[in-house]
Sequence to fold (308 residues):
Amino acid sequence: MTRTLRRRMGQNRVLRLLDGLERQPRADTVMDLVGRGVRALPLGGGRDLLHGRWLGHPVHPLMVQVPIGSWLSAAVLDLRPSRSREASLLIGVGLAAAAPAALAGAVDWAELHRPQQRVGLVHALANTAAVGLYAASLVCRAKGRTGAGRGFAYLGLTAAATGGMLGGHLAYRQAAGANHAEEVPHVVSEGWHRIGAVADFPAGQAVRRSVDDVPVLVVREPGGAVHALADRCSHLAGPLSEGTVEDGCVRCPWHGSVFRLSDGWNVRGPATAPQPAFDTRIVDGHVEVRLPEESSAESSPSTAEALP
Ligand code: FES
Fold:
């Protein structure tokens, strides 16, 4: 067997392991309990702060940079016995920063799909192991057992790297935390699109239409104004047209994100990105929508242009 083939088989094993993790239901009951507990935490407005709504994307990946960076730097310093004090300091910094990062990760995790939660649980367990090992490392160092302290620290780094790999799987392969409405300006063609007669849109009710195969939520106000947003929620693609319309907003039926109908702004998370909003007009008794010029101006080349 060639070395290349052996390497490919190894890669497939890792992928198969990770994909199998997504389908592993053994801990589902525990996850339900933990998820309910996390959602019940009295965080108030702090919950959106932890989701990263203020930043426009999840804040957890940003927060984990501090423990990972501190622990990696400590590992380098540990190669020089004379720098053990500095390494201990960095390990302490990493441990202090791990707590808020974990809380941010937990509030995101509680609002994910089940396969994502399964991977997220193992990601959290690996990182918890890292925290335990680094805490043991600090205790050993404080007792003068520097060699054992270094050993625990390197084990901790291995656990943190495993947690990081699972975090990457969650973010990139499973698209947890990605903006699920990002493609809309690239897919919808420019110009006005007719989506139905005014009478097809009962006042105050959410109606689903399609524009270039992109689902669109349409709500006509009793006063006559018509609002149109991309229907797939930016959080995890939930159908906003099946949500609740009230006070000029729509509430996603899946995890409760709230979007302003007039401009798609996400007034409440867990969605961290706003919802693409369409311009609307009524022509000859029909509703027409188009993407605002500034959002379609930056879109990709049209499919026709992209084809050879
Ligand atoms: S899909 Fe999660 S809030 Fe909409």
About this structure: The two ends are 39 Å apart (CA to CA).
